[in-house]
Each structure stands twice: as structure tokens, then as C-alpha cells.
Design goal:
Layout: E1 8-11, E2 34-35, E3 43-46, E4 49-56, E5 61-68, E6 96-100, E7 104-109, E8 116-117, E9 120-124, H1 127-135, E10 153-162, E11 165-166, E12 171-177, E13 187-188, E14 193-196, E15 202-203, E16 205-212, E17 215-216, E18 219-220, E19 225-229, E20 248-251, E21 258-263, E22 269-274, E23 280-286, E24 290-294, E25 302-308, E26 313-319, E27 324-327
Antiparallel strand pairs: 1-27, 2-5, 3-4, 4-5, 4-7, 5-6, 6-19, 7-16, 8-15, 9-14, 9-19, 10-11, 10-12, 10-16, 12-13, 17-18, 20-21, 21-24, 22-23, 22-25, 25-26
Length: 332
Amino acid sequence: MMIKIVFITVFLIQMAHAQSVANFEAYNLSEGEYINGADGSGGFRNGDIFLPNEYNSDFMAWSGWAISAVTDVTTPGFTNQYSAIPGGGYNGSGHYAVTYAFGNNNIKLTGEAAGKTIPGMYVTNNTYSYYSMKDGDAFSKKFGGITGNDADYFLLTIKAYHNGLISNDSIDFYLADYRFLDNTKDYIVDTWEWVDISELGSVDSLTFRLSSSDTGIFGMNTPAYFCIDNVFDSNPSSIEENVLSTEFVLKPNPANEYVNVHFNSDGMHQLELLDLTGNILRSINSFAEKVQLDLQSLHSGMYIIRTASKERTSSKYLPKYKVQITFHSFNF
């Protein structure tokens, strides 16, 4: 028997929903460019977050946050303060945010995200800070010291505000750690690392504090920079198949240009696309064994693909944003 599946195209318009992944790509910077607040805007809005910025035009100095597409990972020193040591944003993207933080620094949640739980974000070292710790400079020591045995560290501490109160709990992430007895385990982070923020619970804003073993009479000597990307992103280890989700397979997952939905049983399947709050955005029925979804026009973000058949309901995470779905024809 020959069954022809009708060609269907469904557009899912970019929607404002809680926990839209903020990846800073909307700033459309060319490689090597950055925005440091010199325009007097006072900060940067992206998705459901606001990154405050202060800029002093007299001294051409900034603090808070900047948006960057700088890729220079070889030049040490202050002149390379806008660079992330991986050479770009998370997963090869072009944009990310960099902060120069005196004491505490913050991210404000806006819109529907305010008061919600943040799954996590990606964090890495700034290139200026990285080489300062790795090799030392005129102001900062080489981590580990001459012998390599100094128990140095560079620590990022994250806390949350909710309804005006700061959380008792905090998230600690070591951007560098030389406290191991075995010096071969010492490290300075040079890749994008996912940091789980969810245990802080409901959040109106996040505050960040940097601390270092290298301090002097004027405070921390280590340059007070770090970089973030994909705020509101989910743990990549959770995007895996399990025994309860064998009804269908997503390949590849995560996906960039396209994803194939392979069904493991015959008959009609109901295919649903949901946001992270569980709202059903689209519901489509199909008899096909495989459906290919075209993702080329998408920005990064997180959605849920759920299917229902006569046997059971299954679901999987899939990074999505501003989704265009194309159902191709299949004969069988």
C-alpha cells in the first residue's frame, strides 16, 4: 500500500516566553567588534534579561557588562579586555557578554522571566584574565607561583535576589583552581562551561562576585573579568535519550540546520512543540516514519518535542528559537 504524506509548512513565530535563551546574537556585530556602553544606553537588553552598564566618557572607562564579538585569544593584557578565551561565543557562535566587575555585578530578569527559576548559563574566562593567571603580569602573579605549588584560585560566586531579598544559598564556580596536591590537576578554564543556577530557586536578579587568592592592599590583583553566554540554557546532559523516550529519536540533537524525527512505531503520531513552561504551541498529526524539521532560520533556545501514539507519550528537549518547521513528503 502506498501512502503519500502531504507537504506541510508550519511557521512558529518567535514568541516571548519565560526563559528565552539570551545568546546576544541579535546585536549583529562583525568579528572583532564590541559595545561597551559608550552610547550612554546604560545597559543591554537581550531576551528576558537586562545587563547594566556604566560608562565614564571623561576617562573612556566602563564597568558592568559589554557585548562582544572579539576573537583574539593570543594577545595578553588590558588591550584585549573584550575577548573570551575560547575565541567566540558558546558552540561556535559569534557573540557573548563580558563583564568587568568591581565587587558585585548583576543581571536583571525582565518580562515573564522575572521571578522564575533559571536553568543555567555558560561561563568562561576572559582572555586578559586568563593570561594574567597563566603567565603573570606587572600587577598579578602567575598562578601556582615559581614552584607551581601555590594554592591559587579564581572564584565566581553567584547569588539571587527575589522580592528584594538576597538568597542565603550561592553557586560557586572556579574559573581557575590550583589548590590540588597533584599539580597536574591544576586548571584555568579555557572552554565554555555550563553552570547550574536552578537550585537558587525564584530569581528577580542574579549578582556575581569574583574573588582570588592573589590580593593586595587595594584588593584583588587578578583582572576582574569573566564572560557568559546562553543565559537560561538547560543542562546539555539532560538532552539525552532514555528508556521512557524510545517512541522517537531526534537526530542530530542538539541541532543547527535541521533535525530528523524518527518514529519507532507504526500508525498515526501526534507531534507537539511546547515551550519550557509546558504551553503547547503547535500540534500536528502524521503517519510518516520520519519527519525532517528545517532549523536554518532559527536562533538558539530551548523547546520540547513531544509525541503521542496509541502506545504512549514521549518527550525530548531540543534547542530552538523562532522555529520554522518543514514537513517533507515521504512515500512508503
